[in-house]
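task queued by scheduler; priority normal; single chain, no ligands, no partner chains; default sampling; output format set to structure tokens
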Amino acid sequence: MEARAADPTAPKWFNPILLALFAAIAVVLAAAGLYGIQSYPVSQRTAEIGIRMAVGAERQDVLRLVIAGGLMLAFAGIAMGAAA
């Protein structure tokens, strides 16, 4: 164990692996957050989306409506984060 701890090449591979691990965790947390941000408004507007589809809205129109709402929330978060 002492020989392994004294190995000068150990920090060369440990830091990038640790950085990659934290980056992967950050991506998973960001994806979960984006999913939560998108799913809540969609669940609140399910009836509205159903009525729009019944009246004749195209699928891409409804998708655009949902994506636009999510992007507005994302841009608001970016603006607040940049201000902080």
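post-processing summary
- The chain has four helices and no strands.
- The chain has a mean pLDDT of 86.
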